[in-house]
Amino acid sequence: MNRQTKQQQVAELHDKLKRAKAVFLADFRGMNVEQATMLRNELRAAAIEYKVAKNTLLELASKETDKESLSPHYAGPTAIAFSYDDPVAAAKVLSKFAKTQANTFKLKAGVLSGKPITVSDIQALADLPSREVLIAKLLGTINAPVANFVGVLAAVPGSFVRALNAIKVQKEGN
């Protein structure tokens, strides 16, 4: 690889590192093509970008970004996953794959919103419900008091109508 190509790759990686909300590093030593293709397809479906890069280029690219704390983990074969939208989705896919392919794919570390996270933090992030589920739970919680209040308000006129109906039935019976 010539110098110009390396500079271009560093600039591209630097831009991706700056834009990403979360970045995850993994060691893919021993993975075969079929496993790598399967992982890439799963990540692509979750809108996660996955690249294999040289450690020296990653180190240069991460300078002056909030992902600089990943530098100690740039050793051995390094794959990097960029999440621009939903970090939980990326953590779910990567941690699931790491569990099923434990002897060939190992998570190293990550950065979430500028803060370094460990493998156990990535696992905890993967165990969270998806963003949509959390939003649905929040909306359900917000909606519950309103729904109960409407039910109470509807019950008052309903009770009044039933009482009037009982009086009417009683008077018709006499």
Write down the overall geometry: elongated
Note the quaternary state here: single chain
Order of helices and strands: HEHEHEHEEHH
Radius of gyration, in angstroms, nearest whole number: 27 Å
Largest sheet: 5 strands, antiparallel
Give the number of DSSP strands: 5
Low-confidence stretches: none
Strand order of the largest sheet: 2-3-1-4-5
Average pLDDT across residues?
A: 86
Class per helix and strand makeup:
alpha+beta
**What is the terminal-to-terminal distance?**
103 Å
Strand-residue proportion? 5-15%
Q: Kindly state the percentage of residues in helix.
A: 55-70%
The number of helices is: 6
Explain this structure.
Helix 1 crosses helix 3. Strands 2-3-1-4-5 form a 5-stranded antiparallel β-sheet. It is elongated and about 105 Å long. It has 6 helices and 5 strands; from the N terminus they run H-E-H-E-H-E-H-E-E-H-H. The chain is an alpha+beta fold and 174 residues long. The chain is 60% helix and 15% strand.
List keywords for this structure.
174 residues; alpha+beta; 6 helices; 15% strand; elongated
Summarize the structure.
With 174 residues, the protein is α+β, with helices and mostly antiparallel strands.
